[in-house]
Amino acid sequence: MLIELGLSKTTTLEVQKRAGVSRGALLHHFPTHADLLSMTINRLIQLNENAVWSEAEKLKDIADPLTRSVMTLANAYAHPSFVAELELWIASRADLVLRTALRSAEQDAIADRDRVLTQLFEGLLDQPGAEKAIGLTIEFIRGVTISSLLRNDKSHQNQLIADWIETLRNLLAADRT
Description:
With 177 residues, the protein is an all-alpha fold. Helix content is 77%, strand content 0%. The chain has helices at 2-5, 12-19, 23-29, 33-38, 41-58, 65-77, 80-91, 96-108, 110-120, 130-151, 154-176. The N and C termini lie far apart (50 Å).
């Protein structure tokens, strides 16, 4: 529901209705809306990894590993599961229970994230500055994804990503000297 309808329409009432359970049964398992949402996190993480590998497969013919890796992440973050996860991140700003659950799930997923990034950026990891470049890329792509929700300007987004790839090239070249 979160992916399909978004956070504002993923209410406990709607979940109860779709699950075909009583209000008491739902509240027994999920006393708060934040408890309910926090249970979606692990599934979103799985879907997001699948999105990365799906996009990697589509872009496997791009010869340049930097371009291929950044484009893979940018395209994966456009998948509804990534957008839903970012929506939870934003909502957690004002919801301590949700923020705590998100931090815990993200902490638990670090090894998986690192495994995915190591595979995705294979061939670049031996370059000085690669770790910094990857970390900055993730933050950049998150920002572009959130901005695209309001702008919906694919050509602008593509230009930003192309500029980012050029910036990364310069960063990696500067770290070699």
